[in-house]
């Protein structure tokens, strides 16, 4: 039987649970004891003399495991306290599983009543205010998108989402509301083309006017050949810019074009390889000096 009359006391109260080396062995009385914890038995053992320094150590680690490929969170603690809400104490939440049974209906009613009781009037006003702000932001994003399209400004929904921080679903919902309630002539917008994005992307990449002109020629030639029909204009513009920079020998990587355009490198690469199939048709008439470089593209 293990003698537990001699318990180890830490030489310092700092980091008691993490600094195991601060424990002192009463048996060998070493100044620098080598003490390890046996997690299976809950013992602290001195490896210098084999003495059990302390037993029945409480494991303060988690009693569950979360796996990377699992969406379930096994933690049984609640969320952190919200400083914006006055009632931030620990509470019990009544949950229920939606179904057609009577027990589910009872659980739903209990959860609804508990929500009414636990939510104070000031918190209700605060939550209502934030909901109204979200609603205004959704409508503003939709209105901004329509205004930019009417003024011929090349702004995509993805760019608006990154700035205003609203969901695409909410913008689409607000756009449908605007279409149904506003006159049709006020909701007329210009369709986006690849030319609308080429100059802006080239400007952001710091490319010359020659690249802008050649990229525009490529997009117009592809539209004439009907090669890239049905593809995203953004991806076609990005691939045309990458094609032109390769032709002119300018060091521009797929990642650089991807960061500016918001199109993945894989999509740009696939469109670029599709263009290579028609590269003989993509030589501008006033750029015959680039014919040898065009044939070397791969």
From TrEMBL:
The record's annotation in Gene3D superfamilies points to:
1.10.472.170, Cyclin-like
> What is the official name of this protein in its record?
General transcription factor TFIIB
Q: Which GO terms describe its molecular function?
A: RNA polymerase II general transcription initiation factor activity; TBP-class protein binding; translation initiation factor activity; zinc ion binding
The record's region (Disordered) falls at 97-117
Recite the UniProt keywords alphabetically: Initiation factor, Metal-binding, Protein biosynthesis, Repeat, Transcription, Transcription regulation, Zinc, Zinc-finger
What taxonomic lineage is listed for the species of origin? Eukaryota, Amoebozoa, Evosea, Eumycetozoa, Dictyostelia
Query: Record's family?
Result: Belongs to the TFIIB family.
What are the recorded Gene Ontology BP terms?
A: transcription initiation at RNA polymerase II promoter; transcription preinitiation complex assembly
Q: Where is the composition biased (Low complexity)?
A: 97-108
Entry annotated with the keyword Repeat:
yes
Report the GO terms under cellular component.
nucleus; transcription preinitiation complex
Show where the TFIIB-type domain sits. Answer: 21-54
Q: Which organism is it from?
A: Heterostelium pallidum (strain ATCC 26659 / Pp 5 / PN500)
């Amino acid at each position: 039987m293990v003698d537990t009359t001699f318990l180890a006391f830490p030489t310092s109260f700092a980091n008691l649970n993490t600094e195991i080396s601060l424990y002192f062995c009463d048996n060998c009385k070493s100044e620098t004891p080598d003490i390890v914890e046996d997690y299976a038995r809950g013992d602290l053992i001195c490896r210098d003399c084999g003495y059990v320094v302390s037993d029945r150590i409480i494991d303060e680690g988690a009693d569950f495991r979360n796996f990377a490929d699992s969406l379930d969170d096994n933690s049984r603690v609640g969320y952190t306290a919200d400083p914006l809400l006055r009632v931030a104490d620990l509470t019990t939440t009544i949950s229920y599983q939606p179904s057609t049974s009577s027990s589910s209906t009872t659980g739903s009613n209990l959860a609804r009543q508990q929500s009414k009781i636990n939510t104070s009037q000031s918190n209700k006003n605060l939550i209502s205010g934030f909901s109204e702000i979200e609603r205004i932001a959704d409508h503003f994003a939709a209105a901004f998108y329509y205004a930019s399209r009417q003024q011929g400004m090349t702004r995509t929904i993805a760019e608006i989402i990154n700035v205003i921080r609203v969901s695409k679903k909410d913008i689409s919902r607000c756009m449908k509301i605007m279409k149904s309630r506003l006159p049709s002539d006020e909701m007329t917008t210009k369709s986006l083309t690849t030319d609308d994005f080429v100059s802006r992307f080239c400007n952001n990449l710091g490319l010359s006017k020659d690249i802008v002109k050649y990229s525009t020629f490529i997009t117009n030639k592809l539209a004439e050949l009907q090669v890239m029909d049905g593809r995203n204009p953004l991806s076609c513009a990005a691939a045309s810019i990458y094609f032109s920079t390769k032709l002119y020998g300018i060091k521009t990587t797929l990642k650089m074009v991807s960061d500016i355009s918001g199109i993945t490198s894989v999509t740009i690469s696939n469109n670029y390889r599709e263009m290579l199939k028609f590269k003989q048709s993509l030589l501008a008439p006033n750029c015959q000096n680039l014919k040898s470089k065009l044939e070397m593209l791969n």
